[in-house]
Amino acid sequence: MKPNPGGQLDPNDIIGRDQLIKQMWETLADRSIYMNDLRRIGKTQILNRMESLTPKGWLVIKRDLGGFHTAAEFATWTFRSSHDLLGKRERAFRRMQQLLGLLKGAEIAGVLKLPSGAPAAWKDVLIRTMTDLQEELVASAHKLAFLWDEVPFLIENIGKREGANVAMEVLDLLRSQSQEHDRIRFVLTGSVGLHHVLAGLRAEGYVGSPLNHMERIAPGPLQQKDARILAADLLRGADLACSDVEACAVVVAEAAGYVPFYIHKLVARLPRDVRVDAEVIDKTVQNEIAHPDNDWDFAHYRTRLRSYYQIDERTVLTILDAIAAADGPLSFDGVRKGVAASQPLDNREKLLELLKLLQQDHYLARDPDGGYRFRIALVRRWWRFDRCLDKVAP
Amino acid sequence: MSGRRFISRFSPGRTAPEDLERINVQRQALLEEVIGLLRESALKKSKHHLLFVGPRGCGKTHLLALINSRLGKQKDLADRLRIAWLNKDETSTSFLDLLVRIYRALATRYPDEFPLDDLKQVYGTEPDRAREVLGESLVRRAKRRTVLVMIENLDGLFRELPEEDQRSWRAFVQNHPIFATAATAQSLFDGVSEHGQPFFGFFDIRHLALLTVDEATELLKKIASLEPGGDPELVRFLATPRGRARVRAIHHLSGGNHRLYIVLSELLTKKSLEELVRPFEEMVDEQLTPYYQERLRWLSPLQRKIVEHLCFRSRPVPVKEIADRLFASHSTITPQLKLLREMGYVVPNPRGRESLYELAEPLMRLSMQVKQTPQAQPLGLLVDFLRVWYDRDELTARLADLGPEGACREYLLAALAKVESGEPNLRHQLLRQGLEGVDSASCTDQQLQEFRDLAEDSGDAHDWLSYGIACAARRQLEEALGAFTKSAEAASAKGDRAWEVVALLERASVLAWSDQRQSAADDLSALAKREDLTPNLRGAVIGFAAIMLFMLGDSKQALDRMALALSPEYALHNDTFESCASTGIEAAFRLFGSPKNMRSLVTELVAVFAKHDRLSQLGNALVRHLRKVKESPLNQDGLKTWLSYWQSAAAAYPAMQLPLRLLGVGIEYIASQPKDESILLNLPMEERSILRQALGLAS
């Protein structure tokens, strides 16, 4: 397998997610899923692999929704794709037939129109489609999973083009439909968290909770052994002069924080004119981190603190500095001392709250014994470099 | 050969692929790798999206042309891959525009498979509908083959494409995994490198480096070989030290930029300058200048001033210099530099914790020169090139070959005028600039080669000396001896006695180190007797002999020489006395195995320096020597012994009271376990500060 950071992978080359995917399919038996995690953690690849591992009794319709700009486009496509999959029976999708007239043999294109020529109401289209779909699924003894990527972009696009109210209605409708039809499930994900989009809508008065009934999943980095397998495959595929592929794979996997995208990117950046070993890998990582024009955008972890944490930004910085500077996971007490060394801290509860938020925002993870650490080792390394913590004694 | 051929020949898109292959340097490995990735995209389900980033003229289009050519020839891809190379001069303000360009590019190349009728059918329809229909048509016509989309100036495209259209594009690629991409950009831009953007992390980004000197030489050789019959003489010349020195000097003018090298190479390979000058001026006038003037118009006034300042600086500069020259504050300039960097105008070069900035595109500098050069005057860059490449005789010969009406007489005359005006040799200047700041005692192999090439080319005494020092540091003693000899000869030829002496002293030092002590001693004796030496120089020679003898362990002879060197007739500089004193003290310090000899040497050193009223220099050297005492493994007894010998020898001399006081407290501190800085409080503040510095303690 050749390194392909950011590109599209053959689903058979997506390593280390099968266990998670198995769990996701099991979850879908009961409820829909909202998958959220850091950008480039591999959510889209998970959807691709999931599609290729569709269990018996399930059907899948997968789509990146970022190209839709109106609710009507989205509704039309939902109907079209459902009909293409399940519209073989003569009386299939009878409610939609009632709405639009005869469907059999018709090429359905563009925004759907009523026999009168007027555009069909998108809500009507979605509700009827889902209801028809449920019926077809019962008849065929299947369930259907919509694997939808870039849902936040869809909602944002609709909000920009048609107004916040329409975006809110789409969200509410998706929620109601997913709860009403037990043979239809959704897996929703996107490059940005839906909560960002929801925050914008709440400012416009939105009070709904479209994700409440959904199982939340954060895939996270790979397991260590899978990350090493991936790294080894890529090192071989890249035709690098590697002194010991397995040993180098261990170093690459760890240096990249077990994140598949980072593993691909790091292997792609390794020099081709020298023999690759642990030292070369480490030097490559350091050069990438230190270069003022690096394209990893680790700076995002720093710059977004202001908008996420606002008046608590300074405290959060101190927390992250303390954890980054420590040699290993830091206990709560260790964090407290680290923060207290830089600023007055007399609110234990506040500290606990911030630590929880930092975990939710994927900066930190907590070990079974309670110690806090950076969730991704590579980000910690960058943080130490950027914040000049490298010479700070533990 | 018409002038126009120059321009079309080096527009890569219109150059014969076999020529492009032949002049491909530096990128072979990258090209092989990229071809492998794109083959995988064609033959398997994986799809790669590559982005090549580098300044204008660094060979991006050349690379795409090679990719296009190589993939096009691979038979097993004939039915698996379709290539859509978009016209770089067009832009797209919507995803629909982009789809149209892609389809049109495919229709032009594969008219039977991608009929233009499909495109015509969507004209005049609603944009959303047109997008859907054309997208589906494109995918259908591709028939599961991979479509490689080649886009130049992707950064420009992203500037024009609204974010919602970028999302549409990304969704289209994700939903129809039949596309691969090979794109270029002049610099990294937010659209692909910023977290919140749709295409963040989407592209596999490869930065294209500028040419190194060796690669530039390789390029010039390959271009020389392109001519019918080739130019074997040039190829041979490029392999010589003179040839290498010239290429290195050109490197400073071109900044390692491919396009400029190709342009400048024409001056070497064309038999007549006539065929180059006019087309070159036309290229600058018609292509470069309008483009860069437009780019400057996009900038704010302050940003423009920053770029203009950098246009006239040939090396990276710190922020402070830019701020000072523009009468602005550091905090005003820094954010502007950040923006200029993001827009691809400047590049930072880290140096410790600061960054030095330079222009990202050497061609912009050339264009600014054009703006500044009054009409009908020759372009500075070409004149500089001629000065760098040709010596005076060669310039005169080329001028003679030219007819009286030759169009580039003015260039040759301008170059000759500068050479004859007494201006320093530009080539040597550029080479020295390239080595500025390099410590010849700790240089790399490459730098050593550069020192040598410079010395060979210039024949200058200073350059030979630098090379000699570099060789001596690496223990290449024979080579060092040769270099110092040449340095001395060059200095002698110019009547520069002082430099000649320096070179000969270095030579003697190398002789001593290579166990040719008698030769060293003979050389120094002969040198000291020369009648053409000033007393000062003679004293320096004798002083040096004393230092060398101390280092070789012959303290008695060393002391005799030192006593001679210290006499007032030689009027040596204080630094020389201190050097002598330091060496003597170090020699004494090494005699710990022989206390009697140590005490004797210390006593004699004090006596000699006292006799010639040079105790202050001895005292200074003794205090400075504390650093070495501190680093030595001496135990407490040894330290006390050292102190006692000096106290005994020098206590009677008022000029030594302060040094002895500092030595005493210094020894006490060094002996303390653990180190106790409060001991220094036994001294008044000003003396404490001297001692701190001597011991290397923070103030």
Question: Which tags fit this structure?
Answer:
A: Helicase, Ruva Protein, domain 3; Arc Repressor Mutant, subunit A; five-stranded parallel beta sheet; 17 helices; about 50% helix; B: about 700 residues; mainly alpha; 8 strands; disordered N terminus
Strand arrangement across the biggest beta sheet of chain A = 2-3-4-1-5
CATH topology of the largest domain in chain A: Rossmann fold
Q: Low-confidence runs of chain A (pLDDT<50, min 5 residues)?
A: none
Strand content of chain A: 5-15%
Helices and strands, with pairings:
The complex is a heterodimer of chains A (394) and B (699).
Chain A (H helix, E strand, L loop, with lengths): L17 H11 L4 E3 L7 H10 L5 E7 L6 H16 L7 H7 L21 H19 L2 E7 L1 H12 L1 H17 L3 E5 L5 H10 L11 E3 L6 H14 L7 H11 L4 H10 L8 H13 L8 H11 L3 H13 L6 H9 L7 H13 L3 E3 L5 E3 L2 H10 L8
Parallel strand pairs in A: 1-4, 1-5, 2-3, 3-4
Antiparallel strand pairs in A: 6-7
Helix pairs in contact in A: 3-5, 4-5, 6-7, 9-10, 9-11, 10-12, 14-15, 14-17
Chain B lengths: L3 H6 L7 H6 L5 H16 L5 E5 L6 H14 L7 E5 L9 H15 L6 H7 L4 H16 L3 E6 L2 H7 L2 H13 L3 E7 L4 H4 L10 E4 L5 H14 L5 H7 L2 H14 L3 H12 L4 H24 L3 H11 L5 E2 H7 L4 H13 L3 E6 L2 E6 L2 H11 L7 H10 L2 H10 L7 H12 L5 H9 L10 H14 L2 H13 L3 H17 L3 H17 L3 H13 L5 H17 L3 H11 L8 H16 L5 H17 L3 H10 L1 H6 L4 H15 L6 H15 L13 H11 L4
Helix pairs in contact in B: 3-4, 5-7, 11-12, 11-14, 13-20, 13-23, 13-24, 15-19, 16-18, 17-18, 20-22, 21-22, 24-25, 25-26, 25-27, 26-27, 27-28, 27-29, 28-29, 29-30, 29-31, 30-32, 31-32, 31-33, 32-35, 33-36, 35-36, 36-37
